[in-house]
Predict the 3D structure of the following.
Amino acid sequence: MRKRKTLVDVAAAAGVSKMTASRALRGDKDVSKASIERVRAAAREIGYYGNHLAASLSSSRAELIGVVVPALANVVFPEVMSGVSDALRGTGFQPVFGVTEYDTEKEYEIIRSMLSWRPAGLIITGLEQTEATRKLLSGADIPIVQTMDCDGEPLDACVGFSHSKAGYDIAKALLATGRRRIGYAGCNLDKDTRAAKRRQGFLRALADSGVPLAGEVTASGLSSIQSGRKLAEEILKRYPDLDCIYFSNDDLAAGGICYCLETGMAVPEQIALAGFNGLDIIEGFPGRIATSKTARHAIGQAAAGIILEAVKGNGSTGGQRIILEPTISLGALQKA
Amino acid sequence: MRKRKTLVDVAAAAGVSKMTASRALRGDKDVSKASIERVRAAAREIGYYGNHLAASLSSSRAELIGVVVPALANVVFPEVMSGVSDALRGTGFQPVFGVTEYDTEKEYEIIRSMLSWRPAGLIITGLEQTEATRKLLSGADIPIVQTMDCDGEPLDACVGFSHSKAGYDIAKALLATGRRRIGYAGCNLDKDTRAAKRRQGFLRALADSGVPLAGEVTASGLSSIQSGRKLAEEILKRYPDLDCIYFSNDDLAAGGICYCLETGMAVPEQIALAGFNGLDIIEGFPGRIATSKTARHAIGQAAAGIILEAVKGNGSTGGQRIILEPTISLGALQKA
DNA sequence: TTGAAAGCGCTAACAC
DNA sequence: GTGTTAGCGCTTTCAA
């Protein structure tokens, strides 16, 4: 096909200089109305759509924002991305994404690769990065927002909540309903540091209350409804007297309730189930599963907002920390 | 912070010219082993990580691949993205994403904005774009893959399957189990053209078999488990004699089964439910919901593969069409 | 095998 | 208000 249109083509078509065309297209002030109109018209006519590469190189700032998540299979992260995408809409910034698969080495490579696009900012998941990654990030000199977690020292800004506290709080809430034979079922705890933090908080609350953990099963690999079923089956076979199970998240809890209902157990009367996140799937079983509702979309929006603000301001996030605490939903558990 | 490292810094540190450094870093042949090692070492030492912006501008091809999806709230699309991300891992290409919210005007703007990053290729969802968008795309002169659908004329390459056929086939399968009082419940049919195509195929199969549609309810807005509950409630109140409901997707079907189980209906003995996609959530109710399992991850992988192939080859996808047909899973329905 | 020169398409900074 | 001059940091081309 014919050569791609450049600013020079627009300028020629509009009968002005390249520079005036550039200014008119970007909405710079100090351009006459007449020029603006002619340039815009010319651009539209010849089907010009700019070259961010050249613009970014020239102005040494790209309107690209990197978003790094551990996985896309867990709906939580697409929801964060969705929040980012919403906040970025209409700003001219474009999100670039990378998936680490909960692997810190991959995370390093992805971040490194993203940085070479000279993004305006980076949104990454969690507070735990390798030393090399932290060095890379702090040398990048762009706003960084760590999301989902605030149990630790952020590199720059962060938006999230304390998973440790979330685990602690739900344990206390479950204890307050009278449950005493409480088990724990979790997945991917070696890699998912946030799930591990919730577990820690959960166990601490039990200990604080003098209630021993009545049983525990864990598995490796990503959480899913199927793994939840399996873990529920396993824990209930090994510890049949449980009156409550805390799952590391809602996917597992959903699998758990399916198993329990199928085997004729009354949920939550006979066995209380609790998960984490407040996913849509929980609404399929209204009131039956306790959970901590997290604000994933809002976290994504807030993270993008911080970057936007920094970019438009002095380039610094000011080390902002936004805490969006989950809200506990006990549903029918509290009456039982 | 100190000025960012450039190729000149690396060259200086390695005692070679900028050009040799560039070649060494990119693994060009015709560079001496000695130079390669010195340059690599120098780069590592000073913490150099390149500038894709400059490289892309200079070589007029960016290692960026645009991925445009209608929504992130529907797990199907993150799964496609996940497939893309997997296929791109280690190739140096980075995915950029955009969300259209099923809005063709937004789609146009997003694609336009993406094109100005001069991506190596574009992966977009579906076959229905506005005339303006199609013009934009065909003028872009890069490989384009349309995903998820193949009912229509692709712009370039496409990876997907016929939704119309998928709807037709599941209807035939349900009819074969003996169901005759079949209802349809759907969401977002005005915007989700693929769901609408499935419905069309479904209705056509019923008509072909001389079985009238026994009832229909629809709603606007994105599908979710909650909307599935509501639709199930509505359709069963209006048409209590149904022996089967086909939902526009699995999210709705999952909401439907929750409603049915809660109200004490036997699934699938009393009422058969069918969805679409084969989501993980269906596994929570093993065998109880019929569905067509779609290969989202594989579709994403294949789409990215086509682009990669085209970029490494002559720049053309050759108008490839990859059909990944869904497989029907009837579970316990077939025995009922 | 290496290097020097010439851009890629745009914008910042300064004239006019 | 508009144009001119220099780059941004790399790669392509061509010469050595």
About this structure: Residues 16-20, 23, 30-32, 35, 54, 56-60 of chain B lie near DNA strand C (CB under 10 Å from a C1').
